[in-house]
Q: What sequence folds into this?
């Protein structure tokens, strides 16, 4: 089948205590979509890769006239893309060239916490460089790197600290997916901004505790982008990199597309859609087949009714590829006997957001789970069914399975591993959660202002044979 709706609770779309900012098409001239360059390793061997990731300030030409002050990783805005081949050991220098502290969080990466993971307990002070090493230990997936200093994650991401991270492996490499980076395998970071005087952003002026938004779509740090398509099929690695906005995606003429991967990697089965909603921090890899489109035509990607990317179709070589009905086998482990169902409650809106009735406290460990255990987690969004928001629930340190929504089937594209799941108001989503690596990990709403506002908690994944103690930061030591 081809699904034609967005799923999720439509009345909850855009809920924002009245403060929702609809998207508007910019009148700036169209520009070629920026493709984040691949970050060149400092050194590479058959088994090891060495990278330096440098968080820096800069200026980017986004609109005609004055450049916009922006931040980025190894570039002025967003980041150069990192490639993590499965099985290799990464050695990464984390350099902070900013004037304030930051952290380097690998969203979706299966690494120990809380230091390698790069949440709020792993500050890198201005002028400092820290080093992490880890082995890439998960299937091919589209992940991302973003700043995570509490409580200014949202502001730093708004400045531009968000980059793509692509895990590769042999299994994905065998599937008939486009994978020529920047040509037919294209990252698409969806964000929105408001431009003030002299083309500048002003986070404080636009501040909203339910999430900062702007009317102007910004895709890979490009305003009004077009992309020149030179192949019949393209694969888009879409990341909702917005602080708050849900993207409701569809192409002109309702051109169907196929989702092949979600947050944690390739899904067991491809899913055909004409419409797709992504909540904050979610990723979807989709394959679009332009075989029915003539060279010279343009296919537009919209969010609601606003054009966000124009795909200009050029001459392409015809190909005849059918995706297999089954893409990969994914493990579905049994729940560990005698483990209770965990309950997590996301509560409130604007300043009143909480997790389990509490605001986040860096020094407080809210839960513990044994490494290797498989447990059910019931995530409830306590917002009122009629006036509440969809809260995107994210966990560090794990990729989980979505078991059910209010006891009913999860959405058709939720059958693979995920690290972020949108929870409708009044709904309980059941997850199957397992930690492979020890550490202190955060879990939170990924409307980033909600996270900074306290809708966040942390869990220690522990290995009884190797007990550990962690130095946890607090607001005063930061
Ligand atoms: Cu995308 Cu706690 O992060
Ligand atoms: Cu994360
Ligand atoms: Cu939220």
A:
């Amino acid at each position: 089948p081809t699904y034609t709706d967005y799923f999720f609770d439509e009345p909850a779309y855009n809920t924002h205590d009245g403060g929702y900012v609809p998207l508007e098409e910019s009148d700036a001239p169209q520009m070629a979509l920026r493709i984040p360059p691949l970050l060149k390793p400092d050194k590479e061997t058959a088994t090891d890769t060495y990278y330096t990731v440098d968080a820096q300030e800069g200026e980017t030409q986004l609109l005609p006239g004055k450049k916009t002050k922006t931040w980025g990783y190894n570039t002025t805005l967003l980041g150069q893309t990192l490639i993590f081949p499965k099985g290799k050991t990464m050695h990464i220098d984390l350099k902070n060239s900013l004037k304030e502290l930051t952290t380097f969080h690998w969203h979706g990466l299966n690494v120990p916490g809380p230091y390698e993971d790069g949440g709020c307990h792993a500050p890198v002070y201005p002028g400092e460089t820290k080093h992490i090493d880890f082995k890439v230990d998960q299937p091919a997936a589209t992940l991302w790197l973003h700043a995570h200093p509490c409580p200014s994650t949202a502001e730093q991401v708004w400045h531009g600290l968000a980059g793509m991270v692509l895990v590769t492996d042999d299994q994905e490499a065998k599937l008939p997916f486009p994978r020529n980076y920047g040509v037919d395998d294209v990252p698409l970071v969806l964000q929105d901004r408001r431009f003030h005087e002299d083309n500048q952003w002003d986070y404080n002026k636009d501040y909203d505790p339910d999430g900062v938004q702007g009317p102007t779509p910004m895709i890979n740090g490009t305003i009004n982008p077009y992309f020149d398509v030179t192949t019949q099929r393209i694969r888009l690695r879409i990341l909702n990199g917005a602080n708050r906005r849900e993207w409701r995606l569809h192409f002109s003429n309702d051109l169907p597309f196929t989702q092949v991967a979600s947050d944690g990697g390739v899904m067991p089965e491809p899913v055909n859609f004409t419409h797709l909603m992504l909540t904050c921090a979610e990723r979807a890899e989709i394959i679009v087949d332009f075989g029915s489109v003539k060279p010279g035509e343009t296919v537009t990607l919209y969010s609601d009714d606003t054009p966000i990317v124009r795909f200009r179709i050029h001459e392409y070589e015809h190909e005849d590829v059918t995706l297999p009905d089954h893409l990969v086998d994914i493990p579905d482990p049994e729940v560990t006997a005698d483990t209770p169902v965990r309950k997590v409650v996301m509560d409130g809106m604007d300043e009143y957001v909480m997790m389990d009735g509490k605001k986040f406290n860096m020094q407080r460990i809210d839960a513990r789970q044994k490494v290797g255990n498989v447990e059910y987690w019931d995530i409830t969004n306590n917002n009122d069914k009629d006036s509440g928001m969809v809260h995107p629930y994210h966990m560090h340190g794990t990729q989980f399975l979505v078991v059910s929504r209010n006891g009913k089937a999860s959405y058709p594209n939720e059958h693979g591993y995920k690290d972020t799941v949108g929870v409708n108001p009044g709904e309980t989503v059941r997850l199957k959660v397992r930690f492979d690596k020890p550490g202190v990990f955060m879990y939170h709403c990924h409307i980033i202002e909600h996270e900074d506002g306290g809708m966040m908690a942390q869990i220690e994944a522990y290995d009884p044979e190797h007990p550990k103690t962690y130095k946890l930061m607090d607001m005063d030591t930061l």
Remarks:
- The first helix runs from residue 153 to 159.
- The radius of gyration is 21 Å.
- The pocket of copper (II) ion (ligand 2) is lined by residues 105, 107, 394, 396 (CB under 6 Å).
- The chain has a mean pLDDT of 97.
